[in-house]
Design brief:
There is one protein chain. About 55% of the residues lie in helices and about 10% in strands. By secondary structure, the chain is mainly α. The protein has a domain of about 35 residues. Helix 1 runs parallel beside helix 3. The chain is elongated and about 50 Å long.
């Protein structure tokens, strides 16, 4: 257990469950990485807890920028670009458009659970359908 992060019985239970989940799913050796990602997240809320469980299930899937501060997002973007350059495909579900435009080659735009369009970041930025859906029709 990362003792600096365990403040309550609820915290202790969360960490015990996450560590057991990581071990069960063959990621015991990644525990230090999981803890370090968790420590970069700000806030103590359900999103962090969900992210911890996701990391424990498979540390290769880091979900969203999780309310990261600016410098942390830059580090995440650099890591995602490095992984992409090494040939890893990454599914990024994210609402921070600066981050999305910075690290992706291909974007699928969703609107109310339905695919609106897909294309390169440049195509998405220029799309009248995307502009109407997200900025209003006057833009």
């Amino acid at each position: 257990m990362p003792t600096n992060l365990v403040k309550t019985e609820s915290d202790e239970r969360l960490w015990r469950q996450a560590k057991a989940l990581a071990a069960k799913n063959g990621h015991k050796e990644n525990w230090g990485y999981i803890v370090s990602i968790y420590q970069t997240m700000k806030g103590r809320d359900a999103a962090k807890q969900a992210a911890l469980y996701c990391l424990a299930l498979n540390p290769e899937y880091v979900s969203g920028s999780l309310a990261l501060r600016h410098m942390e997002k830059q580090k995440l973007a650099a890591l995602l670009r490095q992984l992409r350059s090494e040939g890893m495909s990454i599914l990024l579900v994210e609402h921070d458009m600066d981050l999305v435009m910075d690290v992706t080659d291909h974007i699928v735009v969703m609107e109310f659970g339905t695919k609106l369009m897909d294309g390169t970041p440049e195509e998405v930025q220029q799309s009248p359908k995307v502009r109407a859906a997200y900025l209003g029709t006057e833009h």
